[in-house]
Amino acid sequence: MTCVGCGAEVADIEYPVHSDMRTSPGCWALFCELLGREFSDPAYWPVHQLTVNAYALQHAASNPALHLLALCLRFDHGYSDAQILPIMRAAKKRNARLPEIGGPRYVTLTVLSVHAARNEWEHIASVTEWAQSAWKSFDDFHEVIRSLAHGLV
Ligand SMILES: [Zn+2]
């Protein structure tokens, strides 16, 4: 079946989904597998935040501005997770004033491309590509997110 969020072809299974995500059980199960890799082996951990941001952007049930901000800080500013987290906390505090972000203009890579990775190097490379494609697909909102980032860094 086709995932209601990202459009990936995923298994039609029964699986509990996250209530804050617009996703299908088969897609959510794949995402949980990726998280499993990242939580169980430190070699996979460096891209954990990118995994969360990319998935959330493609399956947002509410305003995904903070996830887009995180990717802006990573890809435009080259910030590390340690630099990004306090900025995210500051941004969260002004939640009501976050710009309203709609959906992606298109989806090219999905959770499926990362799921196919056979080792930690492929996992890291494919998560990075996936997150970059997710960031690019929100190009309608780059300007507003960049000015939000500018006010926070
Ligand atoms: Zn999906």
Secondary structure elements and pairings:
Blueprint: H1 25-40, H2 48-58, H3 65-75, H4 81-93, H5 111-115, H6 120-136, H7 142-152
Helix pairs in contact: 2-3, 2-6, 3-4, 3-7
Bound molecules: zinc ion.
What this model shows, in words?
This protein is mainly alpha-helical and 153 residues long. The protein has one domain. The protein is 55% helix and 0% strand. It has seven helices and no strands. The chain has helices spanning 25-40, 48-58, 65-75, 81-93, 111-115, 120-136, 142-152. Helix 2 packs across helix 3 and helix 2 crosses helix 6. The longest helix has 17 residues, at 120-136. The protein is globular, with a radius of gyration of 15 Å. The chain starts with 24 loop residues before the first helix and ends with a helix. The relative contact order is 0.17. The model has no long low-confidence stretch (mean pLDDT 94). The site of zinc ion (ZN) has 8 residues, from loops. Zinc ion (ZN) binds next to loops.
Structural class: mainly alpha
**What can be said about the biggest beta sheet?**
none
Percent strand:
under 5%
| Cα-based radius of gyration, to the nearest Å | 15 Å
Distance between the termini: 42 Å
Overall pLDDT level: 94
One letter per element, helices H and strands E, the order comes to HHHHHHH
Given as residue ranges, the uncertain stretches (5+ residues, pLDDT < 50) are: none
Oligomer: single chain
Structurally, the number of domains stands at 1
Instruction: Categorize the overall geometry.
Output: globular
Q: Please estimate the helix content.
A: 40-55%
Bound molecules: zinc ion
